[in-house]
Amino acid sequence: MAELPRDILLFVAAYEERSFTAAAAREAATQSGVSQHVRKLEERFGALLFTRDGGRVSPTPAADRYYLRCLEILRAHAAAREVLRECSAGLSGEVRVGLMPTVTRCALAPALAAFIDRHPNVSVRVHEGYSGVLTDQVQQGGLDFAVVPGFPGLPGLMSRPFATTPEVLVAASGPHAEPVRLATLGPLSIVLPSPANTRRQTIETYLRSNEVPLARTITLDTMLATLDMVATTGWVAILPGVMMARDRVQSRHVVRTLADPALSLDLVTIEATRRPLSAAATAFRDLLQETTVTASAAWAT
Q1: What is the pLDDT, as a whole number, of residue 88?
Q2: Start-end ranges of CATH 1.10.10.10 in the chain?
Q3: What backbone phi and psi angles, to 5 degrees, belong to 78?
Q4: Which residues pair with 200 in a beta bridge?
Q5: Are the C-beta atoms of residues 299 and 241 closer than 8 Å to each other?
Q6: Where in the chain is the domain with CATH 3.40.190.10?
């Protein structure tokens, strides 16, 4: 099957990155090469696609419309290639998925074990990280899809609902699994994720709006350290319920749902708009979603 015109690939990269330099890095080209390809497109059709301002470029209305058509071409081309791959011999290839600790701690293992049994010819590579890093990797083509908290969206990305899970209070002591109103607990020493984590602002807003008294806060951007800090000290944390589902039965932690009001986390999968997921990636995404929804549903019982 013929390869796509280089002009389209470089234009789409420049549009999504808003930078010829970043587009060049993404497509293994040179900055001058990207600039020349875009310039030739503009000269060929007599339409300005980008306004230039130092190292940044801004798309024009013509570029917005051209970009949407280019996406159709990219997805159709990738889908046609995928049909040929699927017709060869069942599911095969590689799946590259990005997951937050929220999902890897509880839902990944059962999904991965079941998927490997069903599709032994598929290689699955899992990258763990926080949402900002995973989003960048999907944009740059390093991941097929990632599971992240819901957000307004970015150029070049499409999202779909994945799961909704309650946020829960994790502590070392207290009535196990009994719902809790944080404002009644007195000043809390609480572990928070870093500002780069999209959940940070949600948690801080919840604490302020519900007048939860705080004694101290500390920022930890590692989940293992957060759980150890909570288990061995008087500090607490607010974490996604799906991640703590198994801890309801036996662990070093006491886990309680938030009440009056409750707080939930909406998770979505993100993928690059310019290419559809392979059959293998789609199958793994669906199985992972099933195990995640099942784990999260335990909090409704």
Answers
A1: 60
A2: 6-86
A3: -65, -40
A4: none
A5: yes
A6: 93-162+266-300
How many other CB atoms sit within 10 Å of the CB of residue 64?
12
In the chain, where do the E strands start and end? Answer: 50-53, 56-59, 93-99, 122-128, 145-149, 157-171, 188-192, 214-219, 236-240, 254-257, 264-272
List the CATH code of the domain at 6-86. 1.10.10.10
Pinpoint the residues of the chain covered by CATH 3.40.190.290.
164-265
Q: The whole model's pTM is what?
A: 0.74
Rounded to an integer, what distance in angstroms lies between the CA atom of residue 151 and that of residue 158?
11
**Closest residue by Cα to residue 110 from 289, 299, 301, 297:** 289
Class of domain 164-265: alpha beta
How far is residue 57 CA from its own chain's centroid? 26
Confidence of residue 50 (pLDDT cuts 50, 70, 90): very high
Task: Provide the pLDDT for residue 78.
Answer: 86
Q: Which fold has domain 93-162+266-300?
A: D-Maltodextrin-Binding Protein; domain 2 (3.40.190)
Instruction: Give the C-alpha separation, 183 to 82, whole Å.
Output: 53
| Percentage of the chain exceeding pLDDT 90 | 60
Rounded distance between C-alpha atoms, residue 301 and residue 278, angstroms:
35
- Confidence tier at 117 by pLDDT (50, 70, 90): confident
CB 136 within 8 A of CB 127: no
Give the residue from 193, 190, 183 showing the smallest Cα distance to 265: 193
Overall average pLDDT of the 223-234 stretch: 90
